[in-house]
Amino acid sequence: MAAATPEPSDMAGRLAAAGGAARPPRKRDPIRLRGRIWWIQYNHRGKLYRESSKSTRRKDADALFKRRMAEIGRGRLIGPSAKKTTFEDLRHMLLDHYRTNRLRSLARMEDTVQHLAEFFSRALALCHRRGS
To answer: I need a labelling partner for 54 at 20 to 30 A (CA). Which of 13, 99, 115, 121 fits?
Structure first.
């Protein structure tokens, strides 16, 4: 009388029982090659970020990934969308805030922001400094 074999519960066990080769679990590498450019991916506060290293060298992507992990560890990560924020975006948000809350100094703020716009109109809002 042949002994009954227990039913395997996982996919690898079922493949092995069926005579197929069990595959090792797939490795999730945060650095991937798309075309000729290396991309990184990481999670921060429950959101998945994918970012181009803008390089054809994996070593550059490794360095970028390590830099992003260090920023997350220090709590200093600035997301890719924040880097694209312009002065005009901030201007609109500020004036919308004044209008929405019906602040009496709206006219004064519009005048003040106009003077700043003459200088900063095309600048990005985020100024990156080394060592900070």
So the answer is: 121
CB 117 within 8 A of CB 125: no
CB count within 10 Å of CB 50 equals 12
Find the domain containing 102 and state its range. 87-120
Residue type, 128: H
pLDDT band at 117 (very low <50, low <70, confident <90, very high): confident
pTM across the whole model: 0.50
Nearest to 41 by CA among 82, 121, 49: 49
- Measured distance CA(37)–CA(66) in Å, rounded: 17
Does 37 fall in a domain?
Answer: yes
Q: Does residue 2 lie within any of the structural domains? A: no
Q: How confident is the model at residue 53 (pLDDT cuts 50, 70, 90)?
A: very high
Looking up tokens 């998945």 gives 48
Spatial distance between the Cα atoms of 121 and 25, rounded to a whole number of angstroms:
52
